[in-house]
UniProtKB/TrEMBL annotation:
Bias kind Low complexity: ranges: 18-44, 64-81
Segments for region (Disordered): 1-127, 170-199
Domain DUF7605 span(s) in chain numbering: 765-927
Swiss-Prot/TrEMBL keywords: Coiled coil
Protein name as catalogued: DUF7605 domain-containing protein
Bias-annotated ranges (Polar residues): 1-16, 100-112
Coiled-coil segments on the chain, per record: 539-566
Keyword Coiled coil in record: yes
Signal peptide range in chain numbering: none
Pfam families (UniProt xref): DUF7605
Amino acid sequence: MKTVQQRQRLSHSAGSEPSRGSPTPSASSQSSLKGSNFSSSPSSPREEYTALGSPDEPLPSIEGRSQSPTETSSSSKRISGTGTGRARTHSVSVSPPSSTLPSRGLNSSPGTSPRRIGSPFGDGGETTRIAARLDGLDLGDSPSRLGMSDVVDAIADIADNLGARTPSWRRRQTTTVSPDAGGSSLGLRLPADRRSRAGSRASLIPHDVRDEEPPPNHFHDPAVQGAFGAAKALAARLAGVLEASPLHASADSTIKRLHRRTRELASFRCPSTRTVGFVGDSGVGEPPLLSNSGAACTCVVTEYHHHAPDDFVVEVERFDRDELTNQVDELLKSYRRFHLHAREMSKDDGVEEAEQQAKVALDTFRAMFRGRLGDEAFLAGDREENVLSTLRSWLNETYPQDDGRYTMAEAQACSSLLMRLTSETAGVREPAVWPYIKTIKVFLNSHILSKGLVLVDLPGLRDVNSARRKVTERYLLHCNEVLAICHIGRATTDAGVASVFELAKKAELSNVGIVCTKSDDIRAEEAIKDWKGPRARRIQELSNEVARTQGQIDEANLSLAELEDDELTDQEDIELDLSRRLRSLGQDLQKKRFELKKYLIENRNAIVSSELRKEYTKNNSDGTLHVFCVSNTEYWARRRLSKDDALPSLHLSGILALRKHCLAIIGDSQLRIARGFVTNDLPALFGDVALWIESGAGSASAEQKRTVRKALDEVERKLKRELVGRDSALSRVGESIKEGFVTEIDGSTGGDNWPSRLAMTGLAGITAASYSAFCRQYGSYCTPAVGRRDWNEEAIAELVKDLGPRWDKLCSSIEDELEENAELMDDVLARALELIQLEDLPRTRRVLVVALECRRKAIVSEAEALFGKFNEELGTLRIDALSGIRTSFIGQALEKAYRDSNMQYGSGSDQRRKGIINDALGHSNLFPKYMRDFGNRLKTSADGLQEQLLEMLQRHLDAFETTLNLVRDENVATESEENPGLRRCLEVETATAREELGRIKEIMAA
C-alpha cells in the first residue's frame, strides 16, 4: 500500500512538469549526440530513389534498418521499486527508425521476408538493379553504394496503381507506441486496456504524387490541364454520337473513318518529348560479383517510357554480332595480357588495372559461355587465334534468337523477366543474357511518365566495361537533362561527377545538374565539430531540447511503472492522466527531433550545394547549376501518414523538389503540342464532320457538283506538284544540304597541313609513367607533372581552328534554308486554298476552307519540329567532328592505338607505346578517313531528313485528299442524305463543341 506522499508524487508526474530534481539533459546531451545520425549505415545513394515517385507502394530500404548503436531505449524498460537510485539513459537519437511501413515487395509472398532491391555494389555486386524496379527483393545484405535505378523507379512512380495496403503503422501496438511513424520506440507505455483509443484519428489518405505543387509553367497550370482534358472530352462526346449510328461499324463508310479518328483524339496523349539521363559510377573498379543470394548483375542502359495500357512491355536491344565479337576479342586480350605477362609488368604498365580487366573478362566469359567454358586454363594456355575461334563459335551458338519483346500483365512477371535479363544466378546452367544486351526499354503506365518524360538509367562514364561506357557517352549527348548522381558525403570530390562535367565541357553541354543522395546521413556530434560557431550552438540547443523531453518521458514512464505495482482504488484515473501526458510528450519529442533533423539536413544541403555550384557552375553557359539533395529514408519514413503529417518529411527528403524539376523540363514542349491539338487537330476533325453534314444537304445540282470536283481536283494536283513533285524545292532539301557541305567543308584547303601540325602537340618529353597513364585513359588525363591534357583535342586543334568557323557558317545557312522551306510550304498551301472558289456553294466553301486551314497549320508546325530535330543532329555531329571525346571521330580513330599501347609491358614498353601513338597520329589515312566519316554522317542525316520530310508531306496530302473527298465523292453525299437523324445530331454536337473549344483555346493561349 502506497503512502499519501507517494500518491501525490504520482499525481504530480501525471499532470505537470518533472521536479527540479529530475535529470537534466545537459548531463547526457554529449553522449546522446553520438546517436544523432539519420542513417544507420552508409548505404547506397542509389537507394534514395526508391522514394522518388511511387505514390502507393513503398519499396523497402536497407537505410535506417537498424537502430543506431548508440541509441538507447531505457525508457521502455519496466522498473519496479520506490524510485530511489534510479539510473536513466536519455535517448537523443534522431535517427530514422527501422520502418514499420508496408515493406513486402510486389514479389514477396506472405511467408517470405521482404528483401531490398537495386543494390549494385558491396557483396551484392549490382544486385538486381533493374529487376528491382518493380518489387522489393533484396538480393544482398550488405549496404550498396549507388542505387541509381531507384532514382528512375521513384520518379516514374513504378508502383503507381499497383495496389495499396493499410499502412502497418496504423495497426494497433501491443507494447509501445511511437509517434514517429515506423520509428523506434520512444518508450510510451500505454495501459493495455486503453490502447484501443490511442491510435491516431487523422485521415488515412496518404500523400498523392498527383497532388504535388506543379512547376511554374503554363502547361502545368491546373486551368490549362483542365482545358486540355476538356478538349479530349469533346472528342469522346462526339465519338459517342457517332457510335449511336450503325454506320460506325460499316467497313466502307465515312462515318467509320470519322469515328476512328475521333477515338484517336479522345485518347490523345502528348508524346514523350524530353529525356532525363541519370548517370553515376556503378561498378568502378569492380567486375560483376556474386551476392549473398547468388545473383550477379551488370549495368545495362534502361529507358522508361509511358504507355496507356496497364500491362508491362519490355523491349531488348542487343549488341549485334560484330559488336559482340569485338568485345570478346578485347576481353580475351585483357585476360591473356595479365595471366601471361603479369610478372613482367610494373605499376607504370598498369598492372593493377590489368588485373581488374582480367577479372572482368573472366566473369563475362563465365556468364556468356556457362556450361561450355569448363577448364578456364585454355583461355591463356592455348594459342590466341585458336581460343578466339572457339569463343566466336560459342558466341554464334549462344546468341539469343527471340525478337527481344516481352509483354506481361503483372508487375511480378515483369520484375522476374528483368531480373533474368540483367542478372545471373548461381547454379543455373544456361548462359546469362546480360552480356548480349545493349539497352532495355520498359513501357508502363506511370503518372510521371505520362507527362512526356523518358527516364534513362545509365552506367557511369568510368564503367570498367568500355562498350557500356561508350553507350553512356552517346546517350548523354542526346539527353535534354543530365543528372550526375553521387553520395552527399563525397559530392565535392566525387570522380564520377567530375567525369560527367568533364564530358559536358568537351561537348559544350550546359544541361547538367547534380543529385546528392543520402542527405539524411549526418550525425549531430560530427556536425558540431565540423561547423562550429552559431550552427554548432544551435545544434546543441536543439539536442538539449530533445534530451529534456526524453527525460520527461522517462520520468512519466517510471511513474506509470510504479503505479502498475500499486493496488490503489483510484489507479485508473492517475493512469489515464499519465497516458495522456505520455502521448503529449511523445508528440512534442517527435516535433523536436524533426526540428533538429531539419536543421542538420537543410544546413548541410545548403553547404554542399554552395560548394558544388562554386566548382561546376562555370561549366554551364547560363551560369546556373541545379543541385538536389535527397533522402529515400526520410521520404519513406512518413510516406504513408496523412498528408498533413507526411508533407514536412516529404519536403525535407528533397524528392518532391526533384520530381517537380523533372516535370518542369517538359513544360514548354508539351504546351506546344497541346496547343496544336486544340487549334489544329480538333478543328480539323470538326471540319470533316461538318463537311459530311453539308454533303447531304442536297442543295447542289449535278452541274455544280462537276464544277466542284474539277476545282478540287486542280487544287489537289497543284499541292502534290509543288510539295512532293520531282521539281519541288522541298524534294531537294537533302541534296542542297549535302552540296553545301561539299562546298564549305570538303573544299577546305587546310587538310594538307594538319598532319604536320600534329608534331606540335607536345607529346615528347612526357615520362614513361605519365605516358602510360594517359594511354590507359585514352588520351584524357591529369597528372601533377603534366597537368590536365587531352591528346585527342590537341591532335585536332588545328583542324578545329580551320573547320570550326566553316562548319558554323554551314549550319547557319542550313538553318536559314530550312526556315525558308517552312515558309514555302505555308505559301504553297495558302495559295492552294485561294483556288477554292465555289461561288455557287458558299457554305460548303467556308466549311472546307476552315478544315483545310487547320491542316495547313498542322503541316507547317510538324515541318518546323522536323527541322528543329535536324538542327539538333547537326549539333551532335559538331561534337563528334570537332571535339575530342572518346566516341568522337578522332577518339574512334585513335582507339585502337590506345588499346595496343595498353598491351605493352616490360622492357622497352615506353618506346613501343610512343611509337604506336606517333604512328597513329601521323598515319596518311588519318585525316582522309576523318573527312570521309564527317561527310558520311552529314549525308546520312540529310538523306534521313529528306525521307522524313517527304513522308510527312505525303501523309498530310492524304489527309487533304480525304477532306476533299467529303465534298466531291458521291458516296459520301449519299451516305449523308440517307441518315438525316445522324446529320441533325452531329450538327447540334459540333456546334456545341465549337463553342466550348473557343473557350478552351483562350485558356490554352493565355
